[in-house]
Records
---
Amino acid sequence: MWTTTVLLLLLTLGPRCTVTENITSFNQSESVGEEFSEAPVKGHKPVRGVKGRDTCSIPCDITVKLLRDEKHSVCGQLQQSLLAFGRSTRKLIRDVMEEQQRALDVLSSQVTELMTKVQTLSSEVQRSNNEMYSVKPVQSHGRDCSDIKDGLMSVVPKIPSGIYIVHPEDTDSSFEVFCEMDYMDGGWTVMQRRTDGLTDFKRPWADYADGFGNLAGEHWLGLKKVFHIVNQKDARFQLHIALVSEDDVTSYASYDDFSLDGETQFFSLRLGRYAGSAGDAFRGYDQEQNQDTAPFSASDVDNDGCEPSCSMGDRTVESCSARHNHTGWWFNRCGLANLNGCPEDAERGRGAPTRILWDTWRRGGVPHAVKAVTMKIRRIASNS
Ligand SMILES: [Ca+2]
């Protein structure tokens, strides 16, 4: 009835226009259309030109207003829906991203765990590789590995690398050494080897004098034993240093003469001419860095040339051994080489680099990070 009343009201007002039944708000029922098409309201003439039950005439400005109101209401609803949709989409995206982040976190912790396992496994592989060498010393006596090689060459087609017993000339002592019989024609007595970082090189003087570590793996043969070998009558030795970087680049430094003074001179180093690809870090770039002729120092024996102290950049150094985490070497105002260097205790557990120092071996001005090194000596002249 309300609609009918509105329509009747509309018919009495202002300019007129034709409204067809597709304007739904005005055509709620057939009876409505019937009501004003066939039964004209009292006092009003039917509008001219409007015929049949499906059309009606209402003022245009009212129609426009009603349509506009309806449009506003629809627009408002649409806007609300869009806002709600936007909010729910944002929440959905946030949820998905959070879920993916959680998945990534889980994956990254798994990768870390795997890396640790791989590291442990490769250490074990390295250790078992080392143990593959003859751990039981070969009972083949000679004065050093070069002498053993010369003695066995005529009777054994291929001399294996491994642990041999040597008895240097003019000494009462015999001891075990590792002989490299394959590398560069063999006959090398290994005096130091670093491979896996499992042996602690943070040691006092007595250990550096007597030797430590595992001959088949990482070890320091000992200054007394090396002195006995290189101090033999009418024998001269060369030194070969083989380096491997963290990214598996290899390099070497060799000296055509190598000897040590006795213990009373703190096993001072004596080097011949340098050849190689790693640079002469023993001598460095100037006399201040030169370790040739330097006596050996350890954490408890200080012969490092810093007396009472050295200035290095903005630092004052009293003990090169302390500066190099209490390792032993032929320090001279520290210098550019320390093949016995090891990482600080705090760094060790985190798989820190070995800190083996051979500073003249560089790429693009930056020293290589050395992961493995072997120092070995071989006879270059015999008393024959
Ligand atoms: Ca000092």
---
Amino acid sequence: MTSVTCRCDTVIEVDVPELANLDSDRNILSALLDGSFLSSICPRCGVAVRPEIALRITWPSKGLDAQVLPELERLSVYRDKAAIPSGCEALVGYPELFERVRMLRDDLDPKAVEILKYYLSEKALEAELDSEAAILYNGLESDKLVFHVLGLKAEQTGVVRLPVESYRKALTGFKETSSKKPFIQVFKGPYKSVKKLGFLADDTEDDR
Ligand SMILES: [Zn+2]
């Protein structure tokens, strides 16, 4: 059992699995898909709370073997200092875990989707949105890939839809695209996410 402390100081015990195989743990799979995974309601104030996670999630039939790390370890992951078993991919925090499971449910290649997310985040910056905006894949909707854009000004969630055709182009051109900047960095190491690009850019400036 892991304890999690609510904002109201109530301590709640949550049973966190160390390892889950989504081919056999179907209850965990459905909880990941509906977003209820490890969420508990605080008996005192009614707020939903979640423990920090460190667990390994595999989904052999979809080719997933990932070490999921808490958001607190994001910087260690960027600096290659987090404990990630060899051969594992890294995912940081619940939103990335939920997103990955949705991509695999829809039989999408996560790396091709990551390329689309890069272009969407570039557009978000052009539109002068918050540079901390996070773009997460949410699902398929009549031949469109639906993305949620979080962290906009005024705390709104934006919704962007891209045609499946854009995804197919990203998939077909993957070999070429991934050999170019900035994608060489995106797909290097166990954490393959466009989210680290901002950090890497800042870090290079610090070194000067
Ligand atoms: Zn509470």
